[in-house]
Design goal:
about 725 residues, 8-stranded mixed sheet, single chain, Rossmann fold, 4-stranded antiparallel sheet, Four Helix Bundle (Hemerythrin (Met), subunit A), alpha+beta, about 30% helix, paralog of FGE (formylglycine-generating enzyme), elongated, 17 helices
């Protein structure tokens, strides 16, 4: 691999070039000092960024109307240390509770068409600086005195410190973008941040080069020696076809040809979302291009320079997508951005990673410039340039969790809010990417209109299917049912659907079952259990929302959901088909929406019908029983469970099957009502049994109920 050397006119102070630490090797006390040094260098570097602001007013200027002013980010990274050490219960002290609340949240950029007009009473820069000084002292003391053992895992004190450090290095980059968006009058030269590349020229010709595909594995294991965010852990394998990728990142010069072809004026190049953005922004050129005296110039972080046509263009995903559509039209080929897996196929040609390299192989980790540089400067194997570094490379892949994903309890909203199909991954890092940002397995995603130091490498490959997101189910009712069917057991009460179908199996005595019906299947656990006994199962529920879960388990093998702990606090969970043991029988189940009191004729000829906790929720329960009698084969079973909780919200009083005084003045139970409705076609197969169940409402509130299970055989 070829590696370029730093320009002779670029000499960063030592504070800029530092590498994330290995967490699994060395002496514990030496590791403590290493983390301490990493913390102070990160804190110093971040503060140096804000030295670029000319005065206090610049802290409050809205560089981007969709993001907070810089005063928020100046304090945000410091309060993060204190808040997370408290959440993890490693400390119980506060420095300034007011700041630790007001500067804690609100980082993810709002949608470009959903402005946040809330008023904030921002603190002064002096107050925030004083807070940062106290935070530095607190964290310094914590590192010096906390327990340290190797390897450092995500339950350890130093893991939370590393979380704070890497979080600050994220905002080193995102804050540099906001400074780059400020008016020039708000910024001033700086010993570190003015050291931009001074070399530029004509844009090189870009061309497509071959990339070998193959089986690509994404993700890393928990014993990886580098700190990682929760979204990086897990594993996912994909088969990547051979494809071609552009030799260089798209340069400013190459972008100019798109503009001259009417790129920003031609709606057909843009997605619907992209065209709305163009109109909203009145976009005519990239955000960091400046039009002066009928010439295009370029905004670096602290100055405007002559247009570096051979530097990479800085664009959002929506612009990159439009460029690819135009390029497809020009070339007659399918041009698009790479997927995450395709980027890995290209990245696999690089045999080193931060922190293992002696010197960065590309314009990354602040080892070269405080800016981009020519796209043909840093060469890699295969004839490519800038496989990593210079600017981020947008991908076609919306971020999603990998198989085995777990939420870190100290930062449960780092990743999950982005699993919405609206945040796309970009890969490879940029000139200011340091720490975790600069490693191979980094997985960062931003909204598609987000401005970052991000650009484009395009590929020629096969068209992609529509991305399929496995987002978290957050509907509280649906999530409760998923937990009830597939989640933890509570107070030693067995899983209810599993226990019910186990009772059904006892009455079958191993006999052959061709067809079964699960009516009122909810989220489908009983349906999958029935599939172990029957060759075909129809599973119906009146609620389409509920059957989305088992359908997702069938198609994707995975369902994520969020259950309430208390108030607005939730826990994130997932269930997997392979762990449930249904992989071999899942295709026997046909999930559909249906009304138990109005079943179409096709639902007939069953050996077993299971009606779990359904009868007392029907608007006409007797109609259901009369209908279902004709849908069961002679000798077939009707199994009914219910706690008999009759409510007029569901069933009018005169339609209750039982639970009232009969005309004789005697109690008339629901079991008696079911018996009378089923006779003479059905007889009781055995004495009813009690089946208890527990429904979790919150972490501290549960419903404990006992259903009665009765089995009826068709005469």
């Amino acid at each position: 691999m070829k590696t370029a050397q730093a320009d002779s006119n670029c000499s960063f102070p030592d504070v800029t070039v530092s590498k994330t630490t290995l967490l699994n090797e060395g002496d514990s006390e030496a590791k403590r000092l290493e983390v301490l040094d990493y913390f102070h260098k990160s804190f110093d570097l971040y503060e140096s960024l804000f030295e670029c602001l000319v005065d206090d007013d610049a802290y409050y200027a809205r560089a981007n109307p969709l993001r907070h002013p810089l005063i928020f980010y100046y304090g945000h990274t410091a309060v993060f240390f204190v808040n997370k050490l408290n959440v993890a219960q490693f400390i119980d002290e506060r420095i300034d509770p007011s700041l630790e609340s007001s500067l804690a949240i609100g980082v993810d950029e709002m949608s470009w068409d959903d402005l946040n007009e809330n008023h904030y009473d921002w603190p002064t820069p002096a107050r925030v600086k004083a807070y940062r000084d106290k935070t530095r002292e607190l964290v310094d003391n914590f590192i010096r005195t906390c327990d340290v053992s190797l390897p450092i895992t995500w339950d350890d004190p130093l893991w939370i410190v590393m979380m704070g450090i890497e979080h600050e290095r994220i905002h080193l980059e995102t804050s540099s973008v906001l400074i780059r968006e400020l008016p020039l009058a708000s910024v001033k030269p700086h010993p570190i941040w003015s050291q931009i590349c001074r070399t530029h020229g004509e844009a090189p010709e870009n061309r497509l080069l071959p990339v070998k595909g193959g089986n690509i594995t994404l993700g890393k294991s928990k014993d990886d020696p580098l700190y990682g965010w929760d979204v990086e852990y897990g594993e996912q394998s994909e088969t990547v076809d051979d494809f071609e990728a552009s030799q260089c990142l798209v340069s400013n010069g190459e972008w100019l040809t798109f503009m001259e072809a009417g790129g920003y004026q031609t709606q057909s190049y843009w997605s619907d979302e992209g065209w709305r953005w163009v109109q909203y922004q009145n976009a005519e050129m990239p955000v960091f291009w400046v039009r002066q005296n009928d010439e295009y110039r370029y905004r670096a972080m602290l100055e405007v320079i002559d247009m570096p046509w051979d530097w990479p263009v800085d664009i959002c995903y929506l612009e990159a997508k439009a460029f690819c559509e135009w390029k497809s039209e020009q070339t007659g080929r399918h041009i698009r951005m790479p997927t995450e897996a395709e980027w890995y196929a290209l990245r696999n040609t690089v045999d080193t990673d931060q922190p293992y390299w002696n010197h960065a192989p590309g314009n990354i980790n602040l080892e070269f410039f405080a800016s981009s540089c020519p796209v043909n400067r840093h060469a890699f194997d295969g004839g490519f340039y800038d496989v990593i570094g210079n600017v981020w490379q947008w991908t076609e892949s919306p971020v999603d969790a990998l198989e085995g994903y777990e939420v870190h309890p100290a930062y449960d909203d780092f990743s999950t809010p982005t699993f919405d199909g609206k945040h796309n991954l970009f890969k490879g890092g940029c000139w200011i990417s340091t720490g975790n940002y600069a490693i191979r397995d980094a997985r960062y995603a931003f909204r598609r209109h987000f401005y970052q130091h991000s650009g484009l490498r395009y590929v020629a490959g096969n068209p992609l299917p529509e991305p399929k997101m496995n987002v978290y189910e957050t509907d509280s009712m649906v999530a409760q049912y998923i937990e009830f069917h597939y989640g933890d057991t509570y107070f030693d009460v067995p899983n209810f659907p599993v226990a019910c179908i186990a009772e059904v199996a006892k009455h079958l005595n191993g006999r052959d079952v061709e067809r079964a019906l699960d009516i009122g299947c909810a989220t489908g656990r009983s349906s999958f259990e029935l599939a172990k006994l029957a060759r075909h199962v129809d599973a119906l529920d009146f609620s389409a929302r509920l059957i989305v879960c088992p359908s997702a388990l069938q198609s994707d093998g995975l369902q994520r959901y969020a259950i309430q702990d208390e108030g607005e606090i939730v826990s994130f969970k997932e269930v997997r088909m392979d762990e449930l043991g249904y992989a071999d029988v899942a295709d026997r189940v046909n999930f559909m929406q249906g009304d138990a009191c109005n079943l179409p004729e096709k639902f007939t000829d069953y050996d077993v019908v299971f009606a779990g906790n359904l009868i007392d929720r029907l608007y006409e329960p007797e109609t259901f029983l009369n209908l279902i009698k004709g849908r069961i084969r002679p000798g077939g079973l009707l199994v009914i469970t219910s706690p008999y909780t009759w409510l007029e919200d569901f069933t009018e009083r005169d339609k209750w099957l039982g639970g009232f005084k009969a005309n004789t003045g005697e109690n008339y139970t629901t079991l008696e009502g079911i018996r009378d409705a089923l006779q003479p076609e059905f007889s009781s197969a055995a004495k009813p049994v009690d089946v208890p169940f527990v429904i979790r409402e919150t972490r501290r509130k549960f419903q404990h109920t006992v259903a009665e299970l009765s089995v009826w055989v068709k005469n």
